[in-house]
From TrEMBL:
Residues 79-196 form the DUF402 domain. Keywords: Hydrolase. The keyword Cell inner membrane does not apply. This is DUF402 domain-containing protein. PANTHER family: PTHR39159, UPF0374 PROTEIN YGAC. InterPro entries: DUF402 (IPR007295), FomD-like_sf (IPR035930), Ntdp-like (IPR050212).
Amino acid sequence: MAEGGAVRRVETGGAAGFWAPGSRILWRYRENGGAHVHIARPVTVVRDDAELLAVWLAPGTECVKPVLADGTPVHLEPLQTRYTKPRTVQRDRWFGTGVLKLARPGEPWSVWLFWEPGWQFKNWYVNLEAPLSRWAGGVDSEDHFLDISVHPDRSWHWRDEDEFAQARRDGLMDDQQVEKVRAAGRAAVEVIRAWRPPFSEGWQHWRPDPSWGVPSLPEDWDRTPAHLSS
C-alpha cells in the first residue's frame, strides 16, 4: 500500500494489464460538452480482470466535484439554468457510507451499491455513462444524466429523466447521442429484469478490507485523460 494513502501509480493498469486488489486509482468523469475532468474520486481496487472492474469509494474520501462559479452546489441551481451557468470545481469529502462501483468492459453503464449505516443494503444504482477508458492512473468516463435505481426486491425505476431532458434542450447531447443513451438504458433494464450479473452475484454482502484506509486525492488529479468515445 502506498504511504500516506496516496494514489498508487500502477503502470500495469493500462489496456494490457490489470490492477491488483488494494491498488489505488482515480475514477473520473469528463465535463459534458467539454474536455476537462470535473469529477475525480480516489478509489481502491477490489477486483480487476477481463470481466469486471470493481472499486471501493471509502467514506471520507477527498474528491473533486463541479460547482457553479459562485460556489453554489449544482443540485441547488434551478434545472432551467443548471447546465448553462459557468462552473468551476472544488475539493470536498464523500460523506455518508461508502460506495462499491462495478463496471464491465465496454458497457455504457456502471452499477453502484449503496448501504445505510450499519451495512444495511439500500439499493443498486445504474449510472448510464460512456464505457470506461483505462489509463495508467485510473479510468475516465462521461456521465449521460439518465440513471436507474434498483431495489432489494428487484423493483426498479428511472431516475433523473428531467435532467436528461434538460441536457438535451441545452445542447449537451444531440439526437443521436440521446438515442444511444436510451438504448443503453433499455439494455440495462433487460439485465435487471433477467437478474443477470452483477445483480445476481451477491455483491451486497461484500465488505472492504479494513486495512485499506482512505486514499488521498493527488495534486495532479486532472492530468491528461485517456481518449473517450461517448
